[in-house]
Design a protein that fits this description.
Layout lengths: L3 E5 L4 H6 L1 H10 L4 E7 L14 E5 L4 H18 L3 E4 L4 H10 L3 E5 L10 E3 L10 H6 L23 H13 L7 E6 L11 H14 L3 E6 L5 H13 L3 H4 L2 E2 L6 H10 L2 E5 L2 H6 L6 E5 L4 H4 L9 E5 L19 H4 L3 H16 L16
């Protein structure tokens, strides 16, 4: 009988995306298996339509007694399904508990103090922040199953395009006045924590420079739900620095769901943003990417895809405090991101646009960029 396999990855969108090469690798190794993925609801759209999965189980991020009741219910459901193999890509207390509660004969997870006993095989995970990609770290858990580590060329990250979301995005861009020959540039202005958030005044300077650089540019700002006002602030301040015609190139398109963001990036000529979930959604497409790295390293979280699809990583090198655990900024000024200048990002953006779509007009004047702290 084909095995029943459960894959677990909770919490962040980017981390779920990083498991998608492992999903495909497991399917290749077990083509007849029934594969289920356990994920929290906010990241579920990443894997909801993954062609290599048979089932997706969603749970929410409950708190207090509600979470205890929910976890016991989920544990009972997992036990009832009688999985043969469980792989815990998460490694947190919740993921470890679900893995153990499944009762599977093969339970794979990281070697974690106090919880390794919950797995039948615990794989070593060094505590230091190594310059090794997170996809490779997660695929270490597949080695006991005889599954080799994938390469970005052979198995990139993936998130299937939702055609209904693509239709909605196309309609919104049309309503915003975007023509087929115009270049949509997407900037994501927020991050999950302040350690990965480029200053808003830097985004204002960058958006102003991009809008002034070429009449074909159409700039769309995206953000997390809690940072929508930040995106609006960047739009209003950038427009205030530009002529009416240039300001009109900065579009107000509202909020995007994850599926819509994936569809928007399929239409985009360029994506710019920090090391966060949306950047890794961009990596599931062919869009050129400019990534801004603060406390994290490109070696750990660069776009995991074929190098044919252009990407540029921008970071502040030579800082003794990088990488860090993102719990406390030792210098206190978030210098790893604050020292990335808008000029650097604009130059990288223009270079990628030129490589991917022919010659582009250079920025009108350097002063358009202003300054950022």
């Amino acid at each position: 009988m084909p095995p029943k396999i459960l894959l677990i990855r909770l919490r962040l969108i980017g981390d779920v995306i990083f498991t998608t090469p492992a999903i495909r690798a497991v399917r290749r190794a077990f083509p007849d298996a029934s594969i289920t993925y356990l994920v929290e609801d906010h990241a579920a759209p990443v894997v909801q339509d993954n062609p290599h999965l048979d089932h997706v189980m969603e749970i929410d991020r409950a708190r207090g007694w509600r979470r205890v009741i929910q976890d016991l219910t989920v544990a009972q459901q997992l036990r009832h399904q009688r999985f043969d193999i469980v792989v815990d890509f998460h490694g947190g207390p919740r993921g470890s508990f679900f893995t153990w509660a499944s009762g599977a004969n093969i339970r794979l997870g990281y070697e974690v103090k106090g919880r390794s006993w919950m797995y039948t095989t615990a794989v070593a995970r060094p505590r230091e922040l190594r310059p090794r990609h997170s996809v490779e770290n997660q695929c270490d858990l597949l080695a006991p199953l005889g599954i080799p580590a994938p390469s970005p060329e052979s198995i990139p990250v993936e998130m299937p395009l939702d055609p209904h979301a693509a239709q909605r995005v196309a309609e919104r861009l049309t309503l915003a006045g975007t023509a087929a020959d115009e270049r949509v540039i997407v900037l994501h202005v927020s991050a999950g924590n302040p350690f990965r958030r480029w200053p808003l005044d830097a985004f204002v300077a960058l958006v102003s420079g991009l809008a002034a650089a070429d009449r074909r540019h159409r700039i769309v700002l995206t953000s997390g739900p809690s940072d929508f006002s930040a995106a609006e602030q960047v739009v209003s301040q950038a427009r205030a620095q530009l002529s009416a015609a240039e300001g009109g190139r900065i579009l107000a398109c509202g909020d995007f769901s994850l599926a819509e963001l994936r569809a928007l990036l399929d239409r985009a000529a360029l994506y710019i943003g920090g090391d966060s979930g949306p950047m890794h959604i961009a990596a599931t497409t062919e869009v050129p990417i400019v990534s801004l790295y603060g406390p994290t390293l490109p070696a750990r979280s660069r776009p995991w895809r074929d190098p044919r699809w252009a990407s540029e990583s921008i970071e502040t090198a030579g800082l003794d405090c990088r990488p860090c655990d993102q719990r406390r900024c030792v210098p206190g000024d978030f210098r790893c991101l604050a020292r990335i200048r808008p000029e650097q990002v604009l130059n990288a953006a223009m270079a990628l646009l030129a490589r991917s779509g022919g010659n582009m007009e250079r920025p009108r004047t350097t002063p358009t960029l202003g300054s950022a702290g």
